[in-house]
């Protein structure tokens, strides 16, 4: 996974700079901790140019932090993280995950992982579409696969064209990303998950 520098994170949430930074920090910590708690995850690699975000997660057991001098962007950062993960565990699948998932649960990650063996052998991997069905929140690659990383505008369609298979199931915590003010209202209003899991706010 990769974490954008705090100065540029979550600029479309409609909150002030301090609020954006708080959401970015809290979501990174939540996603890292949740991934570490998933039975299907053996370790986490975080690529970031932000020293504060690096320090936030570096002490966690099972986390490898790769500090970059500048922010290379989402796709190059995820490709770098994938390379690091492959070297650490060459025989294991590798997942690429965004970090703006305030409602992510370990069960969501495990539910995607169990679908990979059933995917066609020729598939590029699995992808998880966001709650709008247009973006992508996660890719899952078989061990050693060098499938394209196409996060960005209309990435769900781009990943499907590239041979990825969509992960099935509700997967609410994986699909509900936090991109803009409407997403923030949805998450804070509790309309997404009734059990209250994920990041909590005092209002």
Mean pLDDT: 90
Low-pLDDT runs = 192-196
Radius of gyration: 16 Å
Order of helices and strands: EHEHEHEHEEHEHH
**What is the distance, rounded to the nearest whole angstrom, between the alpha carbons of the first and last residues?**
28 Å
Helix content: 25-40%
Lateral strand order in the biggest sheet: 4-6-5-7
What percent strand?
5-15%
Largest sheet descriptor: 4 strands, mixed
Shape: globular
Secondary-structure class: alpha/beta
Number of strands: 7
Q: What's the number of helices?
A: 7
Report a brief summary of the structure.
With 203 residues, this protein is α/β, with parallel strands linked by helices. The chain contains seven helices and seven strands. It is 35% helix and 15% strand.
Tell me what the structure shows.
The structure is a single chain. The protein is of the alpha/beta class. The protein has helices spanning 17-36, 51-58, 74-88, 106-113, 155-161, 172-175, 181-189, and strands spanning 2-3, 44-48, 63-67, 94-97, 125-129, 136-141, 164-166. The longest helix is centred in the first third of the chain and has 20 residues, at 17-36. The model is unreliable at 192-196 (pLDDT under 50).
Keywords:
single chain, 203 residues, alpha/beta, four-stranded mixed sheet, three-stranded parallel sheet, 7 strands, 35% helix, 15% strand, globular
């Amino acid at each position: 996974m990769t974490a954008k520098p705090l100065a540029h994170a979550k600029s479309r949430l409609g909150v002030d700079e301090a609020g954006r930074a708080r959401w970015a920090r809290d979501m990174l910590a939540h996603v890292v901790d949740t991934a570490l708690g998933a039975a299907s995850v053996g370790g986490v690699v975080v690529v970031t140019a932000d020293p504060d975000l690096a320090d936030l997660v570096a002490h966690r057991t099972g986390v490898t932090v790769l500090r970059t001098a500048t922010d290379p962007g989402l796709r190059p950062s995820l490709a770098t993280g994938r390379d690091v993960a492959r070297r650490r565990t060459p025989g294991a699948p590798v997942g690429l995950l965004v970090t703006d998932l305030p409602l992510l649960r370990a069960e969501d990650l495990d539910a995607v992982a169990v679908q990979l063996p059933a995917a066609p052998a020729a598939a590029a991997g699995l992808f998880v579409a966001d709650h709008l069905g247009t973006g992508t929140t996660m890719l899952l690659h078989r061990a050693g696969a060098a499938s394209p990383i196409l996060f960005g505008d209309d990435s769900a369609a781009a990943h499907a064209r590239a041979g990825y298979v969509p992960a099935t199931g509700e997967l609410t915590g994986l699909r509900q990303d936090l991109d803009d003010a409407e997403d923030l209202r949805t998450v804070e209003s509790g309309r997404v998950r009734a059990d209250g899991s994920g990041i909590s706010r005092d209002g």
